[in-house]
Amino acid sequence: MTAAGSGAAEVRDAYVRALRDGDRREAFRLIDEARAAGLDLGTIYMDVFQPALREVGRLWQENALTVADEHLATAITQAAMARVYEQAATWDGHARRTLVAACVDTERHEVGLRMLCDLLECAGWDTTYLGATVPVDSLVMMLRRRRPDVLALSAALPPHLPRLRDTIRAVRLAMHDAPPLVLVGGRPFLEDPALAARLGADLTAADATTAVRLLNERLAPPTAASDAA
Question: What's the pLDDT tens digit per position in 150-207?
């Protein structure tokens, strides 16, 4: 394990303890110290926040935490994300690609989408984050106005997958002339990546960092060699 990885693991374990205690101030202190020690935004998101929330989810499934505990942990993490993002974000003023991110209208697990948008913004994208439970009609109206390059959708629970499929169909029907690339994510796709294509999406990714890389590769401008060809 690298020094950065080792440091992130230590921060993650302490951060989980802060979440279990519902201690917002301690959570913020840990993240502020991690930033001061040199951990970048992507490392904090992927190696601290994401595994910490997965651990909280596991503890909730085992009845070691209540629903209220889980909601508090999520709220603390969302606030911590906003705090570290504000400290880390930079822009060059020339967004190259655009993305709209939303949870299907029965889905409330939104933290992964927020991470994706934050990391893409730092990579020079212009993102529009709509959050949880976005009705299909409203989403389609937004897409028609903004005409993004990519639509990112999240579904964390299997019962929400039929609605995700219907949302993708509605978007493709409404924007048949210039449909966005559709990226999907959530626990069901970790277990079965091929599910994305079966539901009509273009691609999926295991985490936000991987999604940023895949999108930049997929939407990279053609090279001079390919232009000549």
Answer: 999 999 889 999 999 999 999 999 998 899 999 999 989 998 999 999 999 999 999 9
**Helix (H) / strand (E) containing 29:** helix 24-36
pLDDT in tens, 35-76: 999 999 999 999 999 999 999 999 999 999 999 999 999 999
DSSP notation for 161-180: HHHHHHHHHHHHHHTTTSPP
Distance, in Å, from the CA atom of 183 to the CA atom of 151, rounded to the nearest integer, reads 6
Distance CA 179, CA 181 (A): 7
Q: How far apart are CA 42 and CA 119, in angstroms?
A: 7
Which domains occur in the chain, in start order?
3-88 (1.10.1240.10), 98-218 (3.40.50.280)
Count of alpha carbons within 13 Å of 105, Cβ hemisphere only? 12
Helix axes of 111-122 and 50-61: crossing angle, nearest 10 degrees: 180
CA distance 20 to 198: 38
Q: What is the pTM of this model?
A: 0.87
